Amino acid sequence: MGSSRRQRGVALITALLVVMLAATVATYLLSQQSESLTRVERTTERAQLGLHATTTLEWARSALLVQQKNSVYVALNQPWAEGLIARPIETAVATGLLRDAQSKFNINNLIDSNGKRRNADVQIFVRLLNILKLDPELANAVVDWLDNDDEISGTGGAENGHYWSIANRVSGGYGAANKPILLIDELLRVKGMNEASFRRLAPFITALPRANIERTKININTTSTELLTAIFDDVPSDVITDIIRQRQAPLPYTRIDNIKQRHAALPAPMIDAFLDTTSRYFEASLAITGQHSQIRQAALLQTQLANTSGVIAWPAIIWVKENG
Question: pTM for this one?
């Protein structure tokens, strides 16, 4: 009889263990199923956000098209500069901002049509580096990264020999670009350019295509005090301050002659060579936020010239990249 009770006890314990094991397995499977469903939901949501990002980019293009049709100059008091603030799209919210890329110094201007150093632009870049309290020798390193020869420009410069020697110590070798760059992020590979220097410099530079290898001019209506100071290094600071003040009210600079008329102290050759009152390149920053995830994109847009019939095409998309 005692043996029978022991057997029943063992059977009960075994049954409890089986139930506990089944419950544990069921809980695990439910957890895995829940995680799988969550991953599917988030993947589906991100795909939907991607479609909304395309729609939001079309907003940016349409804003630039309207701007181009309504004005011959580009300034910060125009509708394109107001951005897109919290626009609902189904279950997501879209925000967007347009910046004038020609308010910045085009790094690709450092070399000419023959792929050689363009000294006037290099001098401006050196002054900008000094203003930002960065190493001016970075200018030589950037020129060497862009130019099509293998001759070191000067102190701080570096050509393929330097970069391939680094490659021996890290995975994935590389040489200098030896051509204009597409994104300024590429400068992080240039000798002497660390993360801190890049973050300081990035708001003032861009990488733009150059039509017919011509210099991309800087828009006086949208550029920074720092860049104006770098261009006009011999002009008193109060003149630079007055330029910024006058472009805000009552009317921005509408044409090149307008700049010369308002500011006789500025050297006319420098105005003609480096400044403009309009822009064709714009940077779009977009964020699409859903319930569980967010897509952030950046794009470079180029407005188009009117055809012989006066029709203006939609701005071209030069590139789009996802920022996370």
Answer: 0.84
